[in-house]
Amino acid sequence: MFKINENYLKLPGSYLFSDIAKKVKAFTDANPDNKIIRLGIGDVTLPLAPAVIEALHKATDEMAVKENFKGYAPDLGYEFLRSAIALHDFKARGVDIAIDEIFISDGAKSDSGNIGDIFDVNNKIAVCDPVYPVYVDTNAMSGRTGEYQPDLGKWSNVIYMPCTIENNFAPQLPEETPDIIYLCFPNNPTGSTINKAELQKWVDYANKVGAVIIYDAAYEAYISEADVPHSIYECDGAKTCAIELRSFSKNAGFTGTRLGFTVIPKELKCGEVMVNSLWARRQGTKFNGAPYIIQVAGTAVYSEEGKKQTKEQIAYYMNNAKVIKDGLLDAGYSVSGGVNAPYIWLKTPDKMTSWEFFDYLLNEANVVGTPGSGFGPSGEGYFRLTAFGTYENTLEAIERIKKLGSVTT
Ligand code: MLT
């Protein structure tokens, strides 16, 4: 008889956003006339920018012509896109990243899950708590965690770094030494950031203890404050300890189009082994690349028009963030995030648990958010709203929440 990967049996329930979708479906089936406003999953609502659409059309037409047709993409991705990334995302910020240190992919979610393939199962991981569930679940799937402890909402054999109001939602260096450290800034779900000096401490620590940092910078385009780094490679020594994940989903609306990339500097080594070569080997074997037309569309994000248009989209979402934040503050909520990130993190009122507040908002205001406890035990008593809705819906959602009355937290 064949055997399954029993690690999958250790996983609790389904993926957070699938649980939420099921609850919302049950509510809409029972209340078909109610207009639900979804500020739950961080999915964009604005259409792709005109410069991106134009590039998509052009590339699609090329595919119809024998001389221009493209089959499999190069393993690492097309050079035209990798050069644009190296120039605009890194060189423009004073960081030298070579194009063969950039691996184009279909998004940061898959890369953050797949990156574990190249690391030994006995590495110990450290994650922020609350945390984007993909990091933990994928490590559980590959057997790098212990058991899930439902009473604690935690996995054994994982180092949790609590991010709470007391530490301004910034993780502290852990007491126990990890091998792999997951950091995400601007943070999903709390919307917090750390400044360059603080990030430098993590880089110095990782280099000292011989850990690798998986740095998820999917939300870097939302940074508005000058002292917040856009890339971990702005810190000295990061090339010997860090892998950076980037996405086109949040900065250019590619959630349904799928495009991202991972940076692995050649200086990142385990003994004599270059981690970059392992990832190249892994991707060459298991991945056939992001589609040509999508890579062309991604390159258009870096054109003058593309930059201008996507910047306007980000400003639109950040205006929503302000509407949410100001509205909630007015109503007496305790709120953070929403300044360098499209997520607003609020304390649930009246000692409600995160899921109680989820049900309350869904039933009373027909607004969907994400329960903080779904991101980890330190998220209990918190709730996340995204700024990725339309302006009109965002405004209406906040009006509805305000109508529920002022709260004390
Ligand atoms: C979220 O809501 O946390 C994001 O949509 C997750 C993701 O980007 O996969």
Automatic annotation (TrEMBL):
Belongs to the class-I pyridoxal-phosphate-dependent aminotransferase family. LL-diaminopimelate aminotransferase subfamily. The gene is dapL. Pathway: Amino-acid biosynthesis; L-lysine biosynthesis via DAP pathway; LL-2,6-diaminopimelate from (S)-tetrahydrodipicolinate (aminotransferase route): step 1/1. NCBIfam families: DAPAT_plant. GO terms for biological process: lysine biosynthetic process via diaminopimelate, diaminopimelate-aminotransferase pathway. This is LL-diaminopimelate aminotransferase. HAMAP family: DapL_aminotrans_1. Residues 35-401 form the Aminotransferase class I/classII large domain. Substrate binds at residues 15, 42, 109, 132, 188, 288, 384. The keyword Transferase applies. It is an enzyme of class 2 (transferase). Pfam families: Aminotran_1_2 (PF00155). It comes from the Bacteria. InterPro entries: Aminotransferase_I/II_large, DapL/ALD1, NHTrfase_class1_PyrdxlP-BS, PyrdxlP-dep_Trfase, PyrdxlP-dep_Trfase_major, PyrdxlP-dep_Trfase_small. Homodimer. Pyridoxal 5'-phosphate binds at residues 72, 108-109, 132, 188, 219, 247-249, 258, 288. Its cofactor is pyridoxal 5'-phosphate. Its EC number is 2.6.1.83. One of its GO terms (molecular function) is pyridoxal phosphate binding. Involved in the synthesis of meso-diaminopimelate (m-DAP or DL-DAP), required for both lysine and peptidoglycan biosynthesis. Catalyzes the direct conversion of tetrahydrodipicolinate to LL-diaminopimelate. It catalyses: (2S,6S)-2,6-diaminopimelate + 2-oxoglutarate = (S)-2,3,4,5-tetrahydrodipicolinate + L-glutamate + H2O + H(+). The modification N6-(pyridoxal phosphate)lysine is found at residue 250. Keywords: Aminotransferase, Pyridoxal phosphate, Transferase.
